[in-house]
Amino acid sequence: MKILFIYPRFPDTFWSFKHALNFISRKAFVPPLGLITISAMLPPTWKKKLVDMNVSELKANDILWADYVFISAMNVQKASVDKVIEECRKYGVKIVAGGPFFTREYNYYPQIDHFVLNEAEITLPIFLKDLNSGITPKRIYKTDVFADMTSSPVPDYHLLSAKKYAAMNIQVTRGCPFACDFCEVTSLLGRKVRMKQTRQVIDELETLYKLNWRGMVFFVDDNFIGRRRIMKTLVLPAIKKWMQDHKYPFTFTTQTSVDLADDDELLTMMVESGFSSAFIGIETPEDISLQECVKSQNRNRDLLHSVQKIQKAGINVSGGFIVGFDNDPPNIFQKQIDFIQKSGIVTAMVGLLNAPRNTKLYQRLKAENRLTNEHSGNNTDYTMNFIPKMNHDVLLEGYRTIIKNIYSIKPYYYRIRRQLLFRETKPAGYNRIEFSHIKAFFRSIIVIGIINKGRWEFWKLFIWTLLKRPALLVDAITFAVYGYHFRTIFGLRK
Prior knowledge:
The chain folds into 3 domains: 2-141, Rossmann fold, CATH 3.40.50; 166-422, Aldolase class I (TIM Barrel, Alpha-Beta Barrel); 435-489.
């Protein structure tokens, strides 16, 4: 059996980092972890090929080679999904679809032959059993049961053209203990956090190491600290030892909740294990809006202090922010600007509130007859899929004001310096310099330091970093390159 895995193309968005990746000659940030995990669940005698359309072109011969095409995607990839399906139908190759997008939207794709939905550790073996028994597989395989992650295999990382990616990725947990009403995680993966065994995590790190990967590894868990006790007693000690034994070949990034700031021991262990950054959903400094969206973990705390504590421990904080809540006051835009600037959060993803399908927010707005269309999957594209309480034009103009005031050159570089000042500790092994860093440095000098507008701010940052934070020069240049990407995405003058 010959299986072609296809990962559709992402549009050019905030998170694509397309314009930043050009500086290090990489095509995409991370590979399609879901598809290479599915690959590892298939019989080893089957032939497998991966086409990630974000790093390589899908050719007719690839499709004609296959007995089945397996496709997975997220909402934001929908336009590319439609093109892939059209190509596969043109050549008469059967399609098997799964992943978060199709788990929600399978009713809208009658042209797809088979759906293997929810978590594949449960539904894929049933599909394979039917396929191998000689009977015609059913069209839809789905389940309400959540998978035991101890049965999940080491992904087939060998299918990747690793040098085309900025980072590799690993998943330790699924699910989130919180219940934010705009988030799909709990409806897809549940509130009970399920974990792989420590041995599995180390096996995946070892696999990447033996494949000669060096550099960033993204733990893609929706909330890496959802099972703190196990993380502190088993997983992080094992990661720390493995990193020490291998002379720190990786730096780690992940996603956590802001209550990481409440656990000094956990913070220290993450830094000592090599974690250098984390994405945290801040959402809003307005407490009544946090109450509205059931963001309980962010309430009754000094959010600014929490962020700065994490940064001072040595973890660079990226943050998610939202405007458009029913309870947002008229001055929410300036409040968001002030918080972001004071926090020093350089990568601040500010989006208009949207209601994805299968969220509590979606159900509430549907009951209130306020839904207008489906969420695009890109929360920084100036669109909403419901009627807000605030005047829509006022909300949109306020959103534009935030973007201009945090991503224009001077406020952005101010935030970089503030972030670097907060970093009092460096993650273990953090001084490793990769060839990609050197390449990015020289390209940044030409593109940002000579050609583009704002070059004086670039050189001010460079000199300031050499004098004040020389050990963080790689971070400073990285943030400058990110700024170039963000200004391009938002149509600001470079």
